[in-house]
Amino acid sequence: MKNGPSRSTFFLDVSEFEATLLRFINAELLLGANLTLNVNSALFEDGIIDSLKILHLLAFIESAIGRPIPDEEIVMKHFRTVRVIAERFAGEHRLDEI
Amino acid sequence: MKSEPIEELRRSGEIVFTTDGALIVSGLPLKLLRWIDAQLRQLGGSLREIQCPALIGRDFLERANYFESFPHGATRVEAIRRSGLLAPAVCYHCFGILTNARLNTPAEITCIGKCFRHENGRTDAAGRLWEFTMREFVFVATSEVVQQQRRDWIEKIRGFADAIGLKGQVEIATDPFFGNASRGRKLLQQLKELKYEFSVALPDGSQRALASFNLHETFFTSRFGIKLVGAPQAHSGCVAFGLERWMLAILAQRGIDESAQLCG
Prior knowledge:
The structure holds two protein chains of two kinds. Chain A is mostly helical. Chain A has helices at 14-29, 51-65, 76-79, 82-97. Chain A has one domain (23-97): Non-ribosomal Peptide Synthetase Peptidyl Carrier Protein, Chain A (Orthogonal Bundle), CATH 1.10.1200.10. In chain A, helix 1 (14-29) packs antiparallel against helix 2 (51-65) and helix 1 packs across helix 4. Chain B has a single domain (4-54, 87-263), classed as Bira Bifunctional Protein, Domain 2 (BirA Bifunctional Protein, domain 2, 2-Layer Sandwich). Chain B is 38% helix and 29% strand. In chain B, the strands form four sheets. In chain B, strands 3-8-9-14-12-11-10 form a seven-stranded mixed beta sheet. A three-stranded antiparallel beta sheet of chain B has the order 4-6-5. A two-stranded antiparallel sheet of chain B has the order 1-2. In chain B, helix 2 (27-44) packs across helix 9.
C-alpha cells in the first residue's frame, strides 16, 4: 500500500473519505485491472476484491479511522460499496470526534 | 440438547461410539437415520442421485485445491503397494463426474456417501466423528439461480426443523468452507456470506452444525472445466447434511418416544 493515510489524518467528512477510498481502490487495488469503480459499484461481485485485496482494503480503512476493525464487523451490510463503507466508518469516526 | 436419551441408547447398545470416532447404530437410531435421509431426499425432489465411494482420487482433491485449504484434513489409507485417500466430502465426486461438462441446462445432483474428517483426533457424542454419512445436494447454474437455490434450501430446512420440533438457527458460518489458510479468505467468505449453517445448541452452550449451505461461486466450475451454455460463467453451490448429527440432535431434543413417533 503506497498511499495509505497517516495516523494523523482524520476523515471527518463522509464524502471526503468516500473520495479517498475510491481513489485508493481504483489506483491501488484495481491497478492493471482495466476497470474503474464508482461509489455505488458492488465491490464483492465478480471477484473484483480477492482475499489479498480485502486485507489491503481493511488496512487502509483501519489506518484512516484509527482503530482495528474486528472480524465480526466485516459483513456485507458495512462493505457493499464505497459509499456504504464511508458512511459506516467515517460517520462513526465523526461521531466519536464530536 | 439433552444427553440422557443418547446415554440410554448407548446402554441398550443401539448406539455405539467406537474408540476411533465412528458410530454403530441399530434399532431406533438406525431407523431415524434412514428416515432423516428419506425426508431430505423428498425435500430435494426428483434428482439424479449418486452413491459415492469412500475412496477418492488424489487428483480430484488436488484439482479442488483441497490440500492448500486443509493440509491435514484428508485420511490416507494404505494397502500393499497402494495408498489412497478417503473422501472428506461427497460433492467432490459430483464435480469429478462433471469434469469438462458443457451443460445445456443447470445441473442438480444429490449424492450420499461416507466421509472422513480427522479434526485433530477430536470426536464427541454430539456427532463430531472421524467417519460419518453425508447427504449433499449440488447445483451448477448461473450465479442468480445458485443463490436462489440456496435461499430455497435454507427455508426448506427451517420449515423441516420446525415441523419436527428441532430447535436451531441458520447463521453465517465462521469456519471456512475453503479452509483456514488465511485471514483474507476467511473474511472474504464471511463478507460474501458464502457459507451458512443450521446449528443446534449443545448442553455446554456451544453450537453444533447439522447442515451447511454453501456458495462456491466459480471455484469448482473453473477448476473442473464445467461450462453452462448461455452463461458467461457457471457457478456452483451445495447443501450438505451430516446424517449422524441430525439423528443425535433429534434424539437429544425430542427424546426416544417422540423420535420413534416421528419415524414410525
